[in-house]
Backbone:
């Protein structure tokens, strides 16, 4: 049997055009229109009716679940009832991780550091986050987030892809698919990871966190490594000239074009495009990673860690350089927030590594006039429990368990109303008290800010039209500028 002939026989005319239209239609249109004057606006008019307020996104994802009760959500009742049992009724019908199997016996724990009000907005921020506190009037704090997952990987998948099981496209991939590229020389969706040194609670960075799922693979996030070679295999081998590389790629492209004509497989188009992207990145990526042209006063914004590759501070600087050059979605993932027994030790390290770079990024974007159309998001997959995990008498081993029922994230720039707090948790930070924001609501708002109706950006796969927000989600209009 000849596999090529068999493929041709099995691919009928309807199947070929249907697969090609769904797989390549919108991205191809985005690419073509993007090369013309006003192409981006024409594309939006082609399938959207929302005026975009943001052009790009930097998502500062904090893996592990930062404690909202230690950082942003001040609860005087926790001080009043410190070391007292959780009041009756709070635990009923609630799920927690297996580490809180005896949750009914837990005692409440007050925040380990004091809070103060900051800026004209009067936002409450812990002394653990002094740099973020200075940016309070540029930030919208959402204190009524809630989710459905109680463990890390499912919760992170849920936040990033709208589904707890790996296999769905993540937000960056949806935006790449829906809006196309702004720079043919760099990936549309870039990911960088970091972990606080010496942490005992780092999380694994699964590839599903930047997966394209069932979307064409050109929309998968490109992970940049620390160091002088952020992307593997970009450099030409010894003895291969730039001209020879170009000739080789032209030959491969011709062969792939023949295969595409024979089979109609859209993944071949992706392969051709990715070869060309890699060729262009031989120049663009080294230039991106070389920060020697950054003046000292800019580097100082991000803190001392900016001088070391692979740190959160360095990644924040590279994120600004990426969006400045046209990358649409940058996802920074920093692990180490899972303080089950290190709240009084490692939480300080986490805040020290992330506070100044996050605030410095906002300052840097703002002074360049980029914050207005760049959406910056800071938050994890859930919060931490109001009750103690551990022995109250052993302060050095204090911790909090995973808590999905109420927690805090913040957003800034890109069409978000600055200097406000939206939503509220109850008196001990256990449940949402008002204006609850579900993960799908957050995703719907994210897409809305980039000019996308979350119900219209869909992809047909296995007979069903999928979307980032599944069959849920509503835009949080009060936080829109």
Residues:
């Amino acid at each position: 049997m000849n596999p090529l002939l068999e493929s041709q026989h099995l691919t009928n005319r309807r199947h070929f055009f249907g697969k090609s239209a769904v797989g390549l239609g919108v991205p191809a249109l985005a690419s073509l229109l993007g090369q013309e004057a006003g192409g981006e606006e024409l594309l939006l008019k082609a399938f959207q009716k929302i005026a975009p307020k943001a052009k790009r996104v930097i998502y500062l994802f904090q893996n592990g679940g930062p404690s909202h009760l230690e950082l942003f959500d001040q609860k005087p009742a926790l001080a009043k009832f410190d070391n007292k049992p959780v009041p009756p009724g709070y635990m009923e019908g609630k799920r927690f991780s297996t580490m809180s199997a005896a949750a009914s016996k837990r005692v409440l724990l007050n925040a380990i550091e004091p809070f103060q009000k900051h800026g004209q907005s009067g936002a409450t921020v812990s002394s653990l986050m002094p740099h973020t506190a200075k940016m309070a009037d540029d930030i919208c704090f959402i204190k009524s987030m809630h989710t459905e997952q109680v463990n890390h990987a499912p919760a992170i998948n849920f936040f990033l892809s709208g589904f707890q099981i790996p296999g769905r496209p993540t937000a960056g991939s949806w935006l790449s698919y829906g809006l196309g590229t702004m720079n043919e020389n760099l990936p549309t969706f870039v990911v960088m990871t970091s972990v606080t040194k010496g942490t005992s609670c780092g999380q694994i960075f699964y590839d599903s966190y930047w997966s394209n799922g069932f979307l064409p693979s050109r929309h998968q996030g490109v992970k940049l490594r620390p160091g002088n070679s952020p992307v593997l295999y970009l450099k030409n081998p010894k003895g291969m000239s730039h001209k020879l590389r170009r000739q080789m790629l032209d030959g491969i492209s011709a062969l792939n074009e023949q295969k595409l004509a024979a089979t109609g497989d859209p993944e071949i188009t992706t392969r051709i495009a990715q070869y060309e992207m890699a060729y262009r990145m031989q120049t663009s990526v080294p230039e991106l990673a070389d920060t020697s042209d950054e003046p000292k006063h800019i580097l100082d914004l991000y803190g001392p860690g900016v001088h070391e590759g692979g740190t959160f501070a360095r990644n924040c600087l590279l994120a600004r350089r990426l969006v400045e050059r046209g990358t649409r979605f940058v996802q920074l993932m920093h692990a180490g927030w899972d303080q089950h027994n290190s709240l009084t030790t490692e939480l300080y390290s986490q805040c020290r590594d992330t506070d100044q770079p996050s605030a410095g990024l906002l300052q840097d974007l703002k002074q360049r006039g980029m914050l207005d159309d760049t959406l910056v998001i800071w938050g994890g997959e859930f919060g931490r429990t109001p009750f103690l995990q551990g022995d109250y008498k052993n302060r050095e081993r204090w911790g909090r368990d995973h808590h999905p029922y109420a927690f805090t994230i913040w957003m800034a720039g890109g069409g978000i109303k600055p200097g406000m707090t939206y939503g509220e948790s109850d008196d001990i930070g256990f449940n949402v008290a008002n204006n609850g924001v579900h993960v799908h609501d957050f995703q719907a708002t994210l897409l809305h800010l980039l000019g996308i109706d979350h119900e219209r950006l869909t992809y047909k796969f296995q007979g069903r039209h999928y979307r980032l927000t599944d069959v849920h989600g509503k835009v949080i209009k009060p936080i829109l500028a």
